[in-house]
Specification:
Shape: globular
Strand order of the largest sheet: 1-2
Helix content: over 70%
Strand content: under 5%
Length: 262
């Protein structure tokens, strides 16, 4: 069995759960600015921890210490460094340089979404707090805490093929076209509040839809090759990541409905 067959097997085995993520009931409930604020308040944690997946791959696949030495496959180095460039220092709608996480925070503030929880988490980590303890102190929904905790378990696994698997299959390509249409409608009604988020979303779709999706799969193939153990570990990690994404979507769905009922 070749690596291509392994990749096809993953697509077949996880096609159903991926379908459930993309067609989640959450999207039918996103109708107002209040709903978008609830979405962003939780989704920001996925935007934040994604950066650690990217930087972890950079640490594994490129030389990030001195003295510098050539390391790994030059094509893969170029790919992951390109991803890091885009994620850490992209251009926002005003032509200024921001990481995508910082762009997202700015979009949250423009939209009126609460940033206090993620702000406190980042501050505590900057001050040396352990991530697990910092998460416990934030009174987060358990499904959001699990999403972040499992991502960092992947980062700390010291297994580049597992990190690449979650990176390749758990990225923001999981957000369907329907979501973009909803945001466009919101923008028509509230251009100033939604402008930054609309730009962020379009930028992500542009980057992921160009070549990063295909290259991330190529990266996974290169790291797993024909090793059935690595492919099985990759499959299990992807499944967990997709299940956690459903848990995040469930959290947002519940938050929106609870807010309406209140």
């Amino acid at each position: 069995m070749t690596s291509v067959n392994y990749a096809e097997h993953i697509d077949q085995e996880l096609g159903s759960i991926r379908h459930n993520v993309i067609n989640h009931k959450l999207y039918k409930e996103l109708k107002t600015i209040d709903d978008l604020q609830a979405f962003m308040k939780h989704h920001v944690f996925a935007v934040w921890d994604f950066m650690s997946l990217v930087k972890s791959l950079q640490n594994h696949l490129t030389c990030t210490h001195t003295p510098w030495l050539p390391k790994g496959n030059p094509e893969l180095r170029h790919f992951i460094n390109e991803i890091v460039l885009g994620e850490e220092s992209d251009i926002d709608e005003n032509g200024d340089y921001y990481s995508h996480f910082e762009m997202y925070l700015k979009a949250m503030k423009n939209c009126g979404a609460a940033t206090s929880t993620i702000d406190m988490l980042i501050t505590e980590i900057k001050n040396g707090s352990d991530l697990t303890i910092a998460l416990q102190n934030k009174n987060l929904d358990p499904r959001i805490s699990k999403f972040v905790t499992d991502t960092f378990n992947v980062v700390q696994s010291n297994k580049p093929h597992v990190i690449a698997a979650v990176f390749a299959y758990g990225r923001e390509e999981l957000i369907p076209d329907m979501f973009s249409a909803i945001i466009n409608d919101m923008y028509e009604l509230n251009p100033e509040k939604v402008r930054s988020f609309k730009y962020y979303l379009e930028r992500h779709i542009e980057i992921d839809g160009d070549q990063h999706g295909a290259l991330s799969r190529k990266l996974l193939n290169s790291l797993c090759q024909d090793d059935p153990i690595k492919w099985k570990e990759a499959e299990m990690a992807i499944k967990t990541a997709l299940e956690n994404r459903i848990g995040m979507w469930d959290t947002i769905h519940d938050d929106i409905l609870n807010s309406r009922n209140a």
